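Q: Got a minute? One more chain.
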Amino acid sequence: MAVGLILPIISCSKKTESAEINREIPGKGNPEPDDQIRSLIPLLITEKNYTMKLYYTTARQLRAVSYAGDSTAISYNSKLLAKEISHFRNGVLTEQALFVLNATGTPQTMEHYTVQKNARIFKANSRLDYDSQQRLTEATQLDAAKKVLSRMTFRYAENGSFQISKYPENTVLYFNDQEGNPLFKEVKNAWIFGLEGLHPFFFSNSANWGGKENKDPYDITYSYNRSLFPQTIQWKSGTQTTNMKVTFTEIYPE
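A: Always. Here it is, folded:
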């Protein structure tokens, strides 16, 4: 049995975490009329029982997501490169992943820890591979004994659609809805939150999530606003239907 690596850490209080999560970016200028095509980023994703709130850096990087008492936040260094991603439950730090970056500043590996009291306990490593266009091609998570715990494989088409195959679930996620703009088209790093398991929607940067195939398949449909960004999302699994509404804010040229 492998012995977990235990490291001391500084505990993160609920007050500190709340202040970081709730730090807003000031708005710029006045919004354009509704009939103008605009560049938008999602602020709220609302479902019947909860609302997911999203927060950004001034460089349009997704910084934090909060939902149903949980929150997930990325910390950046002075060059706005990702340092770590942390998960909180009711303001208490429960899990953390530290990034090791490659020469271009892109995450190459992630060191995953669970957090108990004032210590990090090693959980797994993730190795991230990319193609020549810097698109993620594989994310493999291994335990301390190098045993594969999970793997996501990404395959891309020339038209921008792609699919993700997940092991060991034997699930395929399809991203092929291109009637309008992808949900996170204007966001630079939402995919990292997808890797952390928040929701497959966070991979929607070149195409919107179109459905899932395994023992419990389901289909997804969208309606779009005048700027052609998804404003409602519906997916069906058997007799169950889930509806979500997206609220956006406008972004301006850097």
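A: Helices lie at 14-21, 190-195.
Q: Perfect, thanks.
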